[in-house]
Amino acid sequence: MLILIILASVAGIIFGGIVGAIIGPILITIISFCFKGFFTVEPNEGVVLLLLDKYKGTAKDAGFWWVNPLYTKKKLSLRSRSGDGEKLKVNDKRGNPVEISAIIVWKIVDTAQATFDVDNYTKYVMVQAESAVRHLATSYA
Fold first, then answer.
1. 90, 138 in Cβ contact below 8 A?
2. What is the pLDDT of residues 11-21, one digit of tens each?
């Protein structure tokens, strides 16, 4: 903000009077708009970039970035996650009742797919894991 005030003052001095009074606020508006394009990406984090709800790219490399200020930025964690599945009562291939459970470790690889293909990717992974465990239990005797 201090930089914006200094730029407005410089514009007032350079152009003087009324012209400086007009150019100063315009410079402040333009520069503050451009500041919206700066963002940071932490390690093991991804940022999905959208322009008018259309996918424009992903920033996965950690650091300080600048993109078009009109882009919408959605952050996703790329860290490994774990989930403990519920105990399931299923019948094996011979029809015997079996209680089975699984611990699932997963991480996001494709940020665009995680953002657009499912509503809630955490819930989606747990449902798919439960389905796979059921299939596994019923496939073997």
1. yes
2. 555 556 666 66
pTM (whole model) above 0.90 = no
Give the start-to-end residue ranges of the domains of the chain: 1-35, 38-78, 81-139
Burial class (CB in 10 A: 0-12, 13-18, 19+), 123: exposed
3-state secondary structure the chain: CHHHHHHHHHHHHHHCHHHHHHHHHHHHHHHHHHHCCEEEECCCEEEEEEECCEEEEEECCCEEEECCCCCEEEEEECCCEEEECCCEEEECCCCCEEEECCEEEECCCCHHHHHHCCCCHHHHHHHHHHHHHHHHHHHCC
Closest to 24 (Cα-Cα) out of 39, 7, 41: 7
Q: 2-15 and 17-35 are packed helices; what angle lies between their axes, rounded to 10 degrees?
A: 150
Q: Which residues pair with 45 in a beta bridge?
A: 77
Q: How far is CA 93 from CA 79, 86, 98, 137, 140, in A?
A: 37, 21, 10, 8, 5
